[in-house]
Specification:
The complex is a heterodimer of chains A (434) and B (266). Chain A has 434 residues and is of the alpha+beta class. Chain A has helices at residues 126-140, 147-151, 168-186, 272-276, 282-285, 293-297, 315-334; strands at residues 2-7, 17-18, 23-31, 39-45, 54-57, 67-72, 79-85, 97-103, 106-115, 246-247, 258-261, 264-267, 300-301. In chain A, strands 2-9-8-4-6 form a five-stranded mixed beta sheet, with no helix packed on it. The two termini of chain A are 40 Å apart. With 266 residues, chain B is mainly α. Chain B is built from 14 helices and no strands. Chain B is flat. The relative contact order of chain B is 0.05. Classes of the chains: A alpha+beta (434), B mainly alpha (266).
Chain lengths: 434, 266
């Protein structure tokens, strides 16, 4: 007797990747072995100890059952079920998680998969770290790869699309997902890690990860990678810039939460708790663009401290992955997934501009993925150069967000209020229905 | 862990229930403070550390984008003043770093002047070369060559190599540096990186010779080997070398190709 399992989040090569958001699946008797009546089949977690784990239900829920029983018709008709990664138990490598089907205690089906979520960079295994770095180095390809198009998107001339207003979080969520999908086209086991900038992260700045400059500041700020490091050949721009950066704090600990400026004590890289305490309304929450986001950038000397140059340094993407994680955590904590609720998304708030500014209203498409080149007119104020990142890349696993995502498309990234997810999750932000 | 249990954990850590709204973090005053911070940066009588802190605070504010635009010109002027402060090299370095990110012509001119005449140097030569390399390589290319021909230290030469990277006439220098076993190894590796971009065919030829040379240093071979592998060029196993990162890269890529097909490069 054999059961065939099929999960929606499966790519054309037959690889299945789950997050915490439930996806639809089916089970059917492929070989009924003489059965003429429905067969009771149990689905359960079949992964090796220490790897990813999965949970089940017969409906889309957050009930997280460790196993379910299905009655599979003898004629091979499929029966629906839902499966998700079990929160707190992500995979470390493809195949360390599995769905196992048993009948009468005997295994009759198995589907190996990966519970792939974005993780804290300092908690990656060496293998996870190296896969990420290899994919990133390949994407850069000594300055001749697609990474340059990401660098050319986050520049001063396009700054209004993504900064100083309500659309800051959704635009950067799209930007990160764009990059992550490119990395996954190289190595599908990779997810973008985040730099938890309010905690000590010495391992992130170790030589085998994002590295450090020479100990003496008089020797410049070129990151000193060991030979053969995947980012050793990193280059951006016609100036062929390698990675330079020098922390302005001791990386054995986090940057300070406050600094004494000439105008008084001011918030700096505030903690996750402080970010959550900004308030339960989006208008208040999005002040996190001012702190901790801005200070996280200027906690370093080098291109990462400049809005037009920051995306040259791969640290930018890990920094912003944490910014996005903070938004995701806030969304979960305050149940703010419905974009039509003003509490979830609003143009109000301390950082504001003209409400008609394109790219920040819910149903505005976002540059560059909309492919629009501006002409300097009030009717078309988009950046006046050809965008290089369009259309938004497809995923082999999910249909969202489409080729020209809107602000709205980036808000309910887990599909809590409706629809499917965007195909990513964070290791410490669960899926929870209302 | 179920989401509901995790929620209780987060609530305890936060010390409040979700329904309460409060601004627990310190106030953010944003724009009204920027002119005062800029004035501090420009003020030669202000404490150097206070001026540096003001630079960092303004750099953070600049990430608010267009909202900072009205202050940008004043910020640049203040940075230029700080860049020439006679008392504090760290202040000058912070200011010049910010200006170099902006491709500022004043900074470029002063950095070049400092490399030509040590008495006018605002920052050490390795720093100056590195800052210039972010902007215009042409004006500093001859200076970079001079440093490479001198007995300059390793870090200075690394930065000088970087400056030559986009210069098509620099190929012979980069090839020579890459092959010179008496050269600093880090400078040789930097030359490998620069040569790849400048002339990929020349790099591949030199890299293959390096890999075939059993007397070559392991780290040089690792660098060129990894570069060739990422270009999809088959490379022989390292000779006389044990397990190393280059072999690990190759084995990892082979394993990925077996598992997922040849999707490991676009």
């Amino acid at each position: 007797m054999r059961v065939e399992l099929s999960i929606a989040a499966t790519d054309p090569a037959g690889r299945t990747f789950l997050t915490w958001s439930p996806v639809k699946a089916t089970a059917r008797l492929a070989e009924p072995d003489g059965a003429t009546t429905p067969v009771a089949v149990t689905l359960r977690n079949g992964g090796a100890g220490g790897g990813g784990r999965v949970v089940f239900d017969t409906v889309r829920s957050d009930d997280d059952k460790s196993d379910i029983e299905l009655q599979l018709p003898a004629d091979g008709s499929p029966v629906d079920f839902w499966v998700a990664g079990e929160f707190g138990h992500p995979s470390e490598a493809y195949g360390d998680a599995a769905v196992e089907a048993t009948a009468g205690g005997a295994p009759i089906g198995r589907l190996e998969l990966m519970v792939r979520v974005r993780k804290n960079a300092v908690k990656l295994t060496a293998a996870e770290r190296d896969r990420f770095l290899e994919a990133l180095g390949t994407l850069n390809h000594s300055g001749q790869g697609p990474f340059q198009s990401f660098r050319e998107t986050h520049v001063l001339e396009a700054v209004e699309e993504a900064h100083g207003y309500a659309g800051f979080p959704p635009w950067h969520r799209a930007y990160l997902l764009d990059l992550e999908r490119e990395l996954q086209a190289i190595d599908p086991s990779v997810a973008l890690p985040y730099w938890r900038f309010d905690e000590a992260a010495a391992a992130l700045f170790a030589p085998d990860f994002l590295g450090m400059p020479p100990p003496d500041p008089e020797d410049g700020d070129l990151i000193q990678f060991p030979s053969g490091h995947p980012l050793e050949n990193w280059q951006t721009d016609a100036t062929q810039d390698p990675i330079e950066r020098r922390p302005r704090y001791n990386v054995a600990g986090p940057p300070p939460t406050q600094v004494a400026t000439p105008v008084g004590l001011r918030d700096w890289v505030i903690t996750q708790q402080q970010v959550l305490a900004l308030g339960d309304q989006y208008a208040a929450f999005r002040s996190f663009e001012g702190a901790p986001h801005g200070p996280a950038h200027s906690s370093f000397r080098g291109p990462v401290a400049d809005i037009s140059e920051a995306a040259k340094d791969p640290l930018f993407f890990l920094l912003h992955c944490n910014v996005d994680r903070l938004w995701a955590l806030w969304q979960w904590y305050y149940r703010r997934h419905d974009p039509d609720q003003e509490a979830s998304y609003s143009l109000a708030g301390e950082f504001h501009r003209d409400p008609d500014d394109l790219g920040h209203k819910l149903d505005d498409t976002m540059w560059p993925w909309n492919g629009v080149r501006g002409d300097g007119s009030a009717a078309n104020p988009r950046p006046q150069f050809d965008p290089t990142r369009h259309p938004f890349p497809e995923s082999p696993l999910v249909a969202r967000p489409g080729g020209a995502p809107t602000v709205r498309d980036m808000i309910d990234y887990q599909g809590v209020s409706a629809g499917e997810s965007l195909g990513f999750d964070y290791d410490d932000v669960p899926f929870e229905l209302g | 862990m179920k989401a509901q249990d995790y929620r209780r954990q987060v609530e305890e850590a936060l010390g409040r229930r979700p329904q309460e709204t409060a601004a627990a973090a310190g106030p953010a005053k944003a724009e009204p403070e920027w002119p005062a911070l800029i004035a501090t940066v420009a003020d030669p009588a202000a404490d150097a550390e206070a001026r540096r802190t003001a630079i960092h605070a303004l750099q953070a504010a600049a990430f608010l984008g267009a909202r900072f635009a009205a202050c940008r010109a004043d910020f640049v002027a203040a940075l230029r003043a700080a860049a020439t402060d006679p008392a504090s090299e760290s202040l000058r370095h912070s200011a010049l770093d910010a200006l170099a990110n902006m491709k500022d012509s004043f900074a470029r001119e002063r950095l070049v002047r400092g490399l030509e005449n040590a008495g006018e140097a605002l920052v050490p030569p390795a720093v100056a070369l590195g800052l210039l390399a972010r902007d215009d390589h042409v004006s500093a290319s001859s200076l970079a060559r001079r440093f490479l021909e001198s007995g300059a230290g390793r870090h200075i030469k690394e930065q000088a190599v970087r400056l030559l990277g986009p210069d098509p006439t620099a190929r012979p220098i980069l090839e020579r540096l890459l092959q010179d076993k008496n050269e600093f190894r880090e400078v040789r590796r930097a030359s490998a990186v620069a040569l790849q971009h400048l002339d990929a065919d020349a790099f591949v030829e030199k890299a293959r010779r390096i890999l075939d040379d059993p007397g070559e240093f392991d780290d040089i071979r690792r660098t060129v080997r990894a570069a060739l592998e990422r270009r999809g060029i088959p490379v022989p196993p390292l000779r006389g070398a044990g397990e190393d990162r280059g072999n690990l890269v190759a084995r990892t890529l082979r394993r990925l190709r077996r598992l997922f097909g040849d999707r490991t490069r676009r």
